[in-house]
Amino acid sequence: MSLVKLTNLPDLGDDRGGLVAIEESQTIPFPIKRVYYIYGTKSGTARGFHAHKALQQVAICIAGKCNMLLDDGNNRDTVELGSPNSAVAIEPMVWHEMHDFTDDCVLLVLASDHYDENDYIRDYDAFLTLVKQ
What we know:
Elements: E1 6-8, E2 34-39, E3 47-52, E4 57-63, E5 66-71, E6 76-81, E7 86-90, E8 95-99, E9 106-111, E10 120-121, H1 124-132
Antiparallel strand pairs: 1-7, 2-9, 3-8, 3-10, 4-7, 4-9, 5-6, 5-8
Protein name: FdtA/QdtA family cupin domain-containing protein
Domain Sugar 3,4-ketoisomerase QdtA cupin: 4-131
Pfam family, one: FdtA
């Protein structure tokens, strides 16, 4: 079973250039309560290394490339993100890590809720224990 749920966002561009529109409950399957982006990641640095108990997210590499590892405690998949009209869903209780950032990478993340530290699982062994319950 693949954990990678890629969505092709509609490219509404024309001969002048690209244009991708993102709409909650349309192209994104939940109401968007938080938007953040990761940029300027130094070579060899990895990010993420956590799961969320309830938060849903969608990640879009709007510039450059990176690899995203997704792990539900039973299966692991890796996907390369490198297109501004390709989005990957990060479901609750899925451990995720981002690796191999290019120098120009800008990773945009849309989240279903506001930041809540209590929703994070930052220890992989604790994550596995919760998955097994």
